[in-house]
Amino acid sequence: MSLDFDLDDIIDWSLGPQLLLAALILLVSTTLSTWFLVKPSYEDLSYYKQQESQLKQELEVVARRAAMLPIAAKQIKDLTTHYERLMKQLPAQQELASVLAAMNEQGLNNHLTFTRINWGKRKPQQFLLKLPIDIELTGSYDDIGRYTQAIAELPRIVLIENAEWQRVSLESSTLHFRVNASTYQYVQERLE
């Protein structure tokens, strides 16, 4: 039996080979259209899905940041208020004498006798100028305690550092108190 297929004679073929040829043509055309038309669209779809996922993540980050804005604004406002309050506690140049006078007055109010109270050498520190105050006084332990508390309650910042005390004599309850205190001034321009 010889298989001689002539495409002009397709109409004369029996129904089985016609259906087989039609199925083959349909399969080839479907495969080719899928390969050339659908596959690039599918690749584009995959790319756009990946882009969508990335954009959703970016949107979540931005949304979280946006949700934090009121909290950050409140924190900035609180920090600004705190900063302004601290800046008001730093003495200006014209207030230094009154700070020393207030410290002296607190000592006298607490029945202390000053041996020495004077300014030390100024020390630049980043944006502040440290102003040391050397204090020596005598009095009772309780009076010295009340004095240090009164210093801490002054409207200007005064830090007490390196406190030393000793009895004036072995028989006496009076103490000799030596302390290095300091206050600070804000410096507009950074000191070198």
UniProtKB/TrEMBL annotation:
Pfam families recorded: PilO
TM spans (from-to): 20-38
Keyword vocabulary terms for this entry: Membrane, Transmembrane, Transmembrane helix
Protein's recorded name: Type IV pilus biogenesis protein PilO
Protein's organism: Vibrio variabilis
